[in-house]
## 1
Amino acid sequence: MNRRRFLGLGGTALMMGASRARVLAETQAPMPMPTETAPGNPAGAHSQENTPADFTLRIAPIAMEIAPSRFISTIGYNNTSPGPVLRLREGRPVTVDVINDTDAAELVHWHGFFIAPEVDGTEEEGTPSVPPGGRRRYQFTPRPAGTRWYHSHAMAGADLHRGTYTGQYGFAMVDSGDDAGHYDQEIFLALRDWEPFFTDQMENEAAEGGGLGPQPERPAVLDTRPNGLEVTSQLFSINDKALGAGEPIHVKAGQRILFHIVNASAIENRMIALPGHKFQVIAMDGNKVPSPQAVEVLLVGPGERIDALVEMNQAGVWILGSTDDMTRNAGLGVVVEYENAHRQPQWLTPSQPLWDYTVFGRTNTAPSPAPEHTIDMVFEKIPSGAGQFNLWHVNGKAYPHDREFMLEGGARYRLVFRNRTDDSHPVHLHRHLFELVDVNGKPTSGVLKDTVIVPVYGRVSVDLVANQPGLSLFHCHIQQHMDFGFKALFRYA
């Protein structure tokens, strides 16, 4: 099946020639990223607008040297992209002042948090925007614990210099005091694409989709109308550097490395690997998995996060990066260098490039409790249904939906995501967690997420407890899909 893609790549020169260059300042290297920790203010200390904030995020244009003499002009936080890692304590109130030094209104979304709609950071839920040249104070109590992140939630439409196409994103770590522990280094990796452009070219969906797999929602008759313009890129990075342009990740034999990985792309799911090593997945979307598993590859959709431990037991110089050769050669990678290893970075194609959410769930357990209600959500694409662009429907219509998705407080719901399109969709529900119960007919339980990839013509069922009253936005985390109809509001009765 098809998805958006470009013809050829001009970025291969970014790769090996500069792989060992170390001419950039340490603050520009892929690791470590700047970290800010909230002071230990007691609860209730942030009620006054004139009280100093725990954090300040300044939105402003920046220029990034993604590779030697290759600059990216974008918008970032605090003159960086990614923005600073925000260290928060679960249950301890914080304030964040956001200053907007651009000429367009902005929104900062706190992805994966249980917070009120008015500070969640979305126009659809009623969060006030940060006006051009103005500021806004966000006040909330961080929860749940785990790897969260923050990013722009501005609509982009046909403007590829807005929203998640920009460099406005960063990690937010909510600490409960009971973290993964027993690791020697903690490393943050954000997967990114840059300089997006429109294209009508297509490629095989299986390139980075984890294989096509079963297709229970494949229509009997496929829509053969010409596809509208979609968005792609041919320049990539991990954090702020293309492969070979920044400092390697320096490791020692015998170390355990804890990787926090987010797909901060506006465009595409990504599959990554570290040859010779396995990722012990311990959490997804910041939530501990019931059955940690060691896997060769990670599939990460836009908005998803994975926490994984890696045992450094294969000395050498390796490339951690995309399993798709063109994407990796165009920048989506970083060099991992063992102490006293001096050689060209090595890449080996994974032997089992497969991804299966269900292996991280509980085993040999009873089926999930029966839901009180079931909501079917059917995803469809209308080729060129929005002029030059595709239009996306949920249950036969584009956003908005008039009180269609109503929840009763405290009730348990089963949401059945039915993808009747030739794209894999990373769908996200704000302000809630859901539990995976079925992926293409394969049952599982115990895996809690806020974003999940629904495969090509696939079906994913999740269970949700309606325990966060207020408006909650549901959408595909691919910016163009969301902007052209692929979203809906959940409301509480």
## 2
Amino acid sequence: MEQKNGRADETQVEFLVDRVKQGDREAFMKLVACYQQKVFILAYSLVRNREDALDLVQEVFLRLYEKIHSYRAGENFQAWLMQIARNLSLDFLRRMKSRKKESLDSLDLDRADLAAAEADPSCFQSAEIIQKAVRALPEKQRLVFILHHFDDLKYGEIAGRLGIAEGTVKSLHFKAIQNLRKILTPQLGGGR
């Protein structure tokens, strides 16, 4: 599936969604292939546990398959899917918190297990570095960054969801980008 600026072509996505609604399993697998990495990154950035994030990816796509008929043509499919992923991840965290008060930071990414989730290991190596950098951000910066870049929400939408001023959202996003540059430049070999 062609991607423009890191996003799948909306026309192709709409076509695939329509085919999935008609029971086309191959179209569903194409949607999974297109979005599984983004769903994994979002889930992992919230639950911070590789196995749990991989389980959540499966749960998200199962939920997508069950709820595909509630998707309305013309909506931002990626934002809709990422909302499902975020809700399931937050529900998971609530369940875990009620069961135990243990750290969610105990496990780190293992490239061998990530390769099983995605065919291109070099892609996940970069994704691993980016995930760690995003997790290192202060909480509000991390949340604004995820909502803007993974859910494709505009600053005004983020402000409404978080109950803060749009200027504050812009400032948090700017700081998040600056912090990510500081963290990622040496790791990804950039020289600035």
## 3
Amino acid sequence: MKIDQHISYGDWLPSVEKVTEIIDLTQVRKLAGVLNLDETSLVNGSHLPPMWHWLFFLHRAETNNIGIDGHPKRGGFFPPIELQRRMFAGEQINYHNPLLVGLPATRTGTITRLDEKKGKNGRMVLVTATYIIEQEGKKCIEDKHDIIYIDGGEETPAPGQDSFIKPNDKWHRIYKADPVLLFRYSALSFNSHRIHYDSKYAENEEGYPGLVVHGPFTALLLAELARDNIQESLTEFSFRGRAPLFEPWSFHLIGNSNNEGIAELQAIRNDSVIAMTATAKFR
């Protein structure tokens, strides 16, 4: 993977990160438990379900290298951006070949975009990381992550009163995250960002009304909704965060598909605010 020589942030320059590890069955079965799925349906040799690759190739920072927010200290693979809030904005994934459980795989990544902008709440920086995951000499997944850094700014208001009306012509599932669920997903994804499990920090330091539901976890739930309703193999999955979801407020997952193998999906808060949109394409 080539490095774009035009990308920099102060003295920081992008680098190539390469990680190899086994797509471990035990880890996969743990996520099945979190999602209330039958873990025995997953064995070595199974195709890893879409979005489950987030369990692997995780940054294993030493405890001494963890910042006050629970993230690894700024710098290294990602640029040392000093803005307080770091949020997962979206992802675009192309599936070329299935990842097989029980076999080693290699992920190669680098930073491919860095933009500084002025938003309505002040300065913001958008960073895109591009990853390629290969197994047994085959490209399996091409994955682009968009991360947004912003100033702390004002407090984020709590969701409003319940106003969601269930659509009659769409798939629908209601979800309510609780501290235990968020902690279990944080543990599985080795995500120590305190906004997901430390309510005092989330409210007092970052101005949220409660614990924040992980963006990738919301996207995973939308991918699972599509997987439950469409039998074909997923070829593309993309999502964009629109508004945060919080514990203890419920949220709704909806979606439908057309005759061209495309499913449009949304996560909607209890007050009808769209929290995430996603598109899934199938063979």
